[in-house]
Design brief:
It is found in: Membrane. Helix 1 packs antiparallel against helix 11. The protein is globular. The two termini are 35 Å apart. It is an all-alpha fold and 296 residues long.
Length: 296
C-alpha cells in the first residue's frame, strides 16, 4: 500500500471519528430519527438525478439501505440522543465487525477461523465490561441501542456482499434512497410533526446554526468525501490492508470527545476499549494462504 494511500486512510479515519462530534451537534437541534431522515434525503435527491444505477438487484439495495442506513442510524441517533457518550458510541459501533463475521457464517456459510473466534470473544468481553460500567450510570439502554445499530450495520454488510456492485460508490449513494421514507414515518410516530416543525423553524438560533454546521459535516465530509475516498482506497488496495485503518475511528472519536466535549472515560472503559479494538482487529484479519507444495 503506497504511503499516499496510507495517509488517505488515516485522513478518512479522522474524518469519520470527528463525524460523531458533528452528529452530537446535529442532535442538539433535530429529533434523532428526523435528523437521520434528513441526512439521507439530501443525498438521495441528487443521487436519483445524477448518479447512474449501480446495476445490482433491488432486494440487495433494499437490504443494504434498511440495515446500513435505516437501522444503524435510527438506533445510533436515538442512543446518542438518550445519553450514549459520543466517544463510546464511536467505539461500540465497531461491534459491527464481529457481528458481520458471525452473520456471514450463519447466513452465507462463510468459514470462521479460530483466530476470528478469539477476536470475537475479546471484543465481546470488552463490550460486556463497557455495558457493566454504563449500567452503573443508568445508561445501559443507550448502550444496547448502539449495539443494535452495530448489528443493523452487519446485516447491511451481508446485503452488500450479496450485491457485488461493479461501482461501490454508486451503490453506497443509491443506498441513501431507501432510508428517508421509513425514517420519516418512524419520526412522525415517535417524535411527532410538532417536534419536526419546531426544529426547522428555530434554525436561526445559535443552537440551530451549530446543528446546521454539524449536519453539513455529516452529509458532505463524513458521507460524500469520507465514503468516496474510502471506496477509492478499497479499489486500489486489498481490503485486508485497508480495513484495519477503520479501527482508528474510535481512537479519534474518544480523543476528540475528551478534548472538545469534556467526556472522561474511566480506566475500565479505556482498558475495555483497547480490548475491543484488539479483538476487532484480530477477528477482521485473515491468515495468509499457505503456499502450495510443488512436487519435485
Amino acid at each position: 500500500m503506497p504511503a499516499r494511500d496510507r495517509l488517505l486512510a488515516v485522513l478518512v479515519a479522522v474524518l469519520w471519528g470527528l463525524n460523531f462530534l458533528a452528529i452530537h451537534a446535529t442532535l442538539g437541534q433535530f429529533p434523532p430519527v428526523f435528523a437521520g431522515a434528513l441526512r439521507f434525503a439530501v443525498i438521495a435527491v441528487p443521487t436519483v438525478l445524477f448518479v447512474p444505477w449501480p446495476k445490482v438487484k433491488v432486494r440487495h439495495l433494499l437490504g443494504y439501505g434498511l440495515g446500513f442506513g435505516t437501522g444503524q442510524f435510527a438506533f445510533l441517533f436515538i442512543a446518542m440522543d438518550t445519553g450514549m457518550p459520543t466517544g463510546l458510541a464511536s467505539l461500540v459501533l465497531q461491534a459491527s465487525a464481529p457481528f458481520t463475521v458471525l452473520l456471514g457464517a450463519v447466513f452465507l456459510r462463510e468459514r470462521v477461523t479460530p483466530h476470528q473466534l478469539a477476536g470475537i470473544a475479546l471484543a465481546v468481553a470488552g463490550m460486556v465490561a463497557i455495558a457493566w460500567q454504563q449500567s452503573g450510570h443508568a445508561a445501559l439502554l443507550p448502550m444496547i441501542l448502539t449495539l443494535l445499530a452495530a448489528l443493523s450495520w452487519a446485516f447491511g454488510n451481508l446485503s452488500s456482499r450479496r450485491a457485488e456492485p461493479d461501482n461501490p460508490l454508486h451503490f453506497t449513494l443509491w443506498m441513501s434512497v431507501v432510508p428517508p421514507l421509513p425514517m420519516f414515518a418512524l419520526s412522525l410516530v415517535m417524535e411527532g410533526p410538532a417536534a419536526q416543525w419546531h426544529s426547522l423553524t428555530t434554525l436561526g438560533t445559535s443552537t440551530g446554526l451549530t446543528a446546521l454546521a454539524g449536519f453539513a459535516y455529516v452529509v458532505l465530509i463524513g458521507t460524500v468525501v469520507g465514503s468516496g475516498v474510502w471506496t477509492t482506497l478499497m479499489r486500489r488496495n486489498p481490503a485486508s490492508v485497508v480495513s484495519p485503518f477503520s479501527l482508528l475511528v474510535p481512537v479519534v472519536g474518544l480523543t476528540a470527545s475528551f478534548l472538545l466535549l469534556g467526556e472522561r472515560p474511566t480506566w475500565l472503559e479505556i482498558t475495555a476499549a483497547a480490548v475491543v479494538i484488539g479483538g476487532v482487529l484480530l477477528g477482521s484479519l485473515r491468515p495468509a494462504p499457505k503456499p502450495e507444495l510443488v512436487p519435485a
